[in-house]
Amino acid sequence: MASLSYPDRLFSLSDCHGGQELHSPLKSPDVVARLSEAVRSQFPGIQHFDTFGAPQEYYQFVVQEAVRLCRDNPGAGTTGLFINSAARTKENNNGQPFFRAEFGGGLRIAGTPLDVIAGVRAHVQKLEILPNKNNGLYSDHEQHRSSFTPRLLADNHGLALENIDLSQIPELSDGRTLGYVDRFGNLVLSENSVDASILQRINGLPGQRVQIKIGEISQSVIIGKSLGDAKPGSLVIYENDGSIEILSKWDESWTPQQRLENSAYKQFGEPAIGTSFSFDERRIAFPRGELG
Known about the structure:
Blueprint: E1 9-14, H1 31-40, E2 45-50, H2 56-72, E3 79-84, E4 98-102, E5 107-112, E6 126-130, E7 162-163, E8 175-181, E9 187-192, H3 198-203, E10 209-214, E11 217-223, E12 235-240, E13 243-248, H4 256-261, H5 264-267, E14 277-280
Parallel strand pairs: 1-2, 1-3, 3-5, 11-12
Antiparallel strand pairs: 4-5, 4-6, 6-7, 8-9, 9-13, 10-11, 10-14, 12-13
């Protein structure tokens, strides 16, 4: 049997890998940071991440970042992303079928459910699914499909896949939510709204404040271009690589633990990924000397 030909680097995100009780932003590995390092530095190899308990918004953000990173680094070779997060359904004893999606920039994603690629529908070049029954890979009632299906990332997988129309990919739900929390407790906001983008609005209000509410907690946040725009302990919101981020400015004297305790994640009460956010454009004048 010929060996399978996989992408240069593989990232496997699954409910089944173990190693932690539940996914937790400050305790679980920062997948996006590792993905950024691997693509930009052309690291080969495979990395596994247990994501049990992570919501769909988490996977959607990781996918969006994978598409962006591979697009912006065309010489980085090929990248494969495997996602296993689908619960069993009444319609499918084995859960939703696994898909195989091709993107530009040498990126291929295999996983389930289709919702995880809702935010990148426009970037999918080819979409196929592996039927749950009579697929030649596992039995119709296999309990551990995810131990077989990373094979979909191989060029020569040898499986009879079904082409499906891109319209089968669900549309991203309308709204503003917390999309990701990195290992330092910085918050990344996600938008899919018919209203004017918060990104457009904050770019028009440099040096001012907005009131941001995530879940039930509201905080006054400085609109800046970088963390240099505020004093230690202050919250700053700005654009970074096309994302909207809220960060807390560190004091140089803080210990690593103090930095985490004063992070944006902690100041907003440790909101769950997927929590809705809103903002108020009311401008508040700075006290003298507040800007860094």
